[in-house]
Amino acid sequence: MSVRDPAASNRPRERPPLPTATKLLLGVLLGVCIIVPLLVPLYARESPDLGGMPFYFWFQFALIPVVSVLTFICFAVVARHENRAGKP
Amino acid sequence: MNPDVDGVALAVFLFFFVLVTALGFVAARWRKGESLESLDEWGLGGRGFGTFVAWFLIGGDLYTAYTFIAVPALLYAGSAIGFFAVPYTIIVYPIIFIFLPRLWSVSHRHGYVTPADFVQGRYDSRGLSLAVAVTGLLATMPYIALQLIGIQVVLQVMGIGGGEDASLLEKDLPLFVAFAILAAYTYTSGLRAPALIAFVKDTLIYIVILVAVIYLPSQVGGWGEIFGSAEEKVAAGNEELGAPILAVIPDETVFWAYGSLALGSAFALFMYPHSITAVLSTGTRNVIRRNAALLPAYSFLLGLLALLGYIAIAAGVEVEDANQAVPQLFENEFPSWFAGVAFAAVGIGALVPAAIMSIAAANLWTRNVYTAFINRQATPAQEAFQSKVMSLVVKFGALAFVLFLPTEYAIYLQLLGGVWILQTLPALVVGLYTRWLHRWALLGGWAVGMVYGTWVAYLQPSATDPTVDHWGSPVALPPFVDETKVYIGLTALVLNALVAIALTVALRAAGVPEGVDGTRPEDYRADAGDAGVDLTDEAPAGR
Prior knowledge:
The complex is a heterodimer of chains A (88) and B (543).
Chain A: H1 20-35, H2 40-43, H3 55-86
Chain B: H1 7-26, H2 39-42, H3 51-62, H4 65-76, H5 85-110, H6 115-123, H7 126-158, H8 168-189, H9 192-220, H10 222-241, H11 255-271, H12 273-280, H13 285-294, H14 296-314, H15 325-333, H16 336-374, H17 380-404, H18 407-422, H19 425-428, H20 439-459, E1 475-476, E2 486-487, H21 488-509
Antiparallel strand pairs in B: 1-2
């Protein structure tokens, strides 16, 4: 999109909602990201430790990059969809 | 002046402070728009920040100096649930990913500056919008005061500002000067000032924390030693209290407290006006989404920082006020110049969020009180002027608060702020998807949630300090439950939602008018470049 068509700017660009399958995928990925850190009994334990650091701490640290990557996948999926939908 | 002030540390601290002051004033000309005389420019930095700027800005905004002081202080004091800050700041980003692009789109298409603007447009109700705005103001003001407390703690450890016997003037003058400067450049540069200063703040914080967690453990005998000494301190503390209240790893009695605090705080965090201000300043929807994946780097940092509370125990730091534990650790273990860098990181860390919070609060006042009720024909220039003046009022209000009231009040109010801001969720977040809830039902639910949450918080004694009878804990037993304590804000939110649903059914049956929806379904998916959404310099290539 290098030149803006003045007539086009007066009507909303076609930007349909995400397909159901994509929504489902995003829901599962983001749901995992939100729910797993809340399952405290899963990780509130001493062992196995990592270099003297109890499981409780290093597991929560390990969740951070995992959630970050899953969220990035969601971003890539949505961005691809919107890019395609945005083109005429 | 106090004789044991470390001159080198102070000089380094002052150097960085002067640097960010200069940046704050220069920022007025950075990525300059047509004129600063509108809220889009002054209050939202031109609404065009890209991924890189936004990463620093939002990170600098959400991870405040007070967080950096208070989270390790919780662990230092042996709180069983202190580490909840980590899951809390993990789950906030997927939540942001889901909700905030919709708020961004509808706000850009309709020129909304505050969350209460959206509520007004969606529900056609100045009353509900005012409730959301007032909640935001009430929750933000003590948060600004806490940033000042963050600076105060650092100044105390550095030895300036004096001890108990210092005169009022000597004690508070440095704080006053720091805040006057902050107020001046926020006034002239608006949101661009904290956006530019955030680069310095975040860089310093990353350097300091990484050096601390790499260097300090080897000094005190490794991680095994660190967790061992934390266990010992906790055991000794429990013996003194006569009950197993403290812990390093939470046991099953506090699982719900831990999880509900993480979930409730995550929802509260992104509804705070200063978070929404930072998010609305971005140039495209995808800047928000991409940052939801990149911002967790700060959560990692926060987790490491929290562990400094245990390192302080292992290093033998003894302080009366747990908030001083980490600054004292820096002073004890680092060479003077690096301690100065660390203090600067915390001090500047207070300035960025304080500036954004005061801008957000000022925008709420201008848009949802001044323009909504006092001067309904306000021009953009009048709005910008109102906000600038209000940003000063808000900051000096916070300063007066810290100078004249006990520190505990700001902490209690900050605890309440989270509970309060959660009560705007049904109007704000549910409103992004459906208008099924009736506007007056939302107002009723909000009122019930506010009163319930405040009252229950008031009733909580502290588990560790027998002299504290009220506002002692963010968790309480929900109604009809007699064992498991849950975050008060979340319980109040459930009550709020139930009331809103019941009232909606009743009001609809009675045929009470629902107002006109000013938004359309496609508004929630609009992006930069679409009709009615400003095309920014970032937009065409911004994906």
